[in-house]
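Appendix B, Record 12. Input sequence as logged:
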Amino acid sequence: MVIENSADSTDNIGNLPYSVNASCPDNSSITVYGDGSIRILYENAQLPPKYHFTDNNTTDDEANAVLDYLAEEYAAKLGYKEPVSYSCVEKSYSGEDMRSYYMYDGSSDIRKNICNHDLSYASFSPDEEGNLSCIWIYNAYSSSTYKGDYLIITSDKAIENLLSGDYYSSVPSDYFKGGKLSDKDIARVSLGYRNTGE
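Logged structural output:
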């Protein structure tokens, strides 16, 4: 299927498809969205029994083992030559731990590494039985126009900027001891690009 669109005109944008869906013989389905993101839904894509793949009942070590397996199985299919996997746990509104699983193509170039981490990555989701239920593939490059590079700074420089007061925050300064941010207030530094969905 070929869908053509004139990049010079937005008059027909309301007539463009929101997504294109394909059903596969193994009962999986692939949906490609207008922003370039891809969702692959699986039916009963079992992991070997030794892996414990859940949303909220998997330890860090178990999550790392699952991600190693997923990288082995899917990195090449995703086009990742140097797959980097990570998992994180966030609290739901009800206070329940919710684990997420991610993978991106790593690079020795720090700029490319940060961009891939934040703009071109895959997320993996389990079903209730611990099978692979869904892969979301995000690639902001596919629906973006290059305008230039953001300034990349090191984590040391970011900490220096924070400690000197060079930041914006919704946290009132009187929250900090003495009204000023100290190095003890910084638990972790994560440098990244923000996209329009954040």
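DSSP finds three helices and seven strands in the chain.
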